[in-house]
From TrEMBL:
Species of the source: Micromonas commoda (strain RCC299 / NOUM17 / CCMP2709)
Keywords: Carbohydrate metabolism, Hydrolase, Magnesium, Metal-binding
Protein name per Swiss-Prot or TrEMBL: fructose-bisphosphatase
Family per similarity comment: Belongs to the FBPase class 1 family.
Fructose-1-6-bisphosphatase class I N-terminal domain sequence ranges: 21-199
Catalytic activity as recorded in UniProt: beta-D-fructose 1,6-bisphosphate + H2O = beta-D-fructose 6-phosphate + phosphate
Enzyme Commission code: 3.1.3.11
Length: 337
């Protein structure tokens, strides 16, 4: 189960362990932090499951989040559950939530060692029609014990030590990596436990689907347009379009089946729509550790340095060969607009 995996996570950030930078207490603290997230996800999935029955559907009385987006009741519940659970874990110095403009300092955690960034309920605008939604999270080590500072997260995504998401779909599935393999756990409601169902997720090297909102195609630049035309009208292997409009669901399908998921920058939104810190980085971290890739058309996503906790960034992720092909079309378009 997830609990036993977390408690024996001997492969916590092999890159840091290799440099002797991770000590036993750091592993234990990370395990406790991840356990707190797992508990929050169980609570949220319980709310999602009984949405209409418990009057949890609909908007949260006209409130909006930092992005100016209409909040759903479940957005606020998910944010509160994640925030309280992580703060109470006493393992974090600071939290960054999509639902909160400012960084949340965990003032009652003098030994807090980690910073957790999260989108507590991504895709919530789809929730009233029962489309899959999810929670996305990433973990950084804080620079100073017990003292959170926004600079702890204004760095490249490759410095994360763990990332994951929980999808509330036909099954409740947690996908998690602590720097090594990507594992998938499925919630067994009869046990109340996440059971290991995908011991080592690998993203296929290439796929037969592309996933992007074609409704924005009039705003696309040359790179995206050339790639989509290439796969749509491919002589031997025309690709199928699959777009759910809920990032966790689109990424989960891409991770397991291959292909690409894109939210490109365009003339209407030069940085795209998805947030770098708590959407792009965690998903890119997972995708790479599953053998896939993630870029913005010109550079590896995990090499991008975050400069603002809610900044948006274009992203293409999925099968390594397919993402390389997108990058090639972006290079061609830049050379010959
Ligand atoms: P569009 C959901 O609102 C979300 O943030 C992501 O989950 C999803 O990938 C994206 O927006 C969909 O955006 O513009 O295609 O509706």
């Amino acid at each position: 189960t997830l609990s036993s995996f977390i408690l024996t996570a001997t492969e916590v950030c092999p890159s840091l362990a290799a440099k002797g930078h991770i000590k036993k207490e750091e592993e234990t603290d990370l395990c406790i932090l991840l356990q707190s997230i797992a508990t929050s996800c169980k609570y949220i999935q319980n709310c999602v499951r009984k949405l209409g029955l418990a009057n949890l559907s609909g908007k949260n009385g006209g409130t909006t989040n930092v992005q100016g987006e209409q909040q759903m009741k479940l957005d606020v519940i998910a944010h509160d559950v994640f925030t309280r659970g992580l703060d109470e874990s006493k393992r974090c110095t600071m939290l960054i939530s999509e639902e909160e403009e400012e960084a949340i300092m965990c003032t009652s955690s003098p030994n807090g060692r980690y910073v957790c960034v999260f989108d507590p309920l991504d895709g919530s605008s789809n929730i009233d029609c029962c489309v899959s939604v999810g929670s996305i999270f990433g973990v950084y080590r804080a620079n100073a014990l017990g003292k959170g500072d926004v600079n702890d997260v204004l760095r490249p995504g490759k410095e994360m030590v763990a990332a994951g998401y929980c999808m509330y779909g036909s099954a409740c599935t947690m996908v998690l990596t602590v720097g090594g393999n990507v594992r998938g756990f499925t919630l067994d409601p009869s046990l109340g436990e996440f059971v290991l169902t995908h011991p080592k997720i690998k993203c296929p090297p290439s796929g037969a689907t592309y996933s992007v909102n074609e409704g924005n195609s009039r705003y696309w630049g040359g790179g995206m347009r050339r790639y989509v035309d290439h796969v749509k009208y491919h002589k031997e292997k025309p690709h199928a379009l699959r777009y759910i409009g809920s990032m966790v669901a689109d990424v989960h399908r891409t991770l397991l089946y291959g292909g690409t998921f894109s939210y490109p920058g365009d003339s209407k939104s030069p940085n795209g729509k998805l947030r770098l810190l708590y959407e792009c980085f965690p998903m890119a971290y997972i995708m790479e550790r599953a053998g896939g890739a993630a870029s913005d058309g010109t550079q590896r996503i995990l090499d991008v340095c975050c400069t603002g906790i809610h900044q948006r960034h274009p992203i293409h992720m999925g099968s390594e060969e397919d993402v390389e092909e997108i990058d090639r079309f972006y290079r061609e378009a830049a050379a010959d607009p």
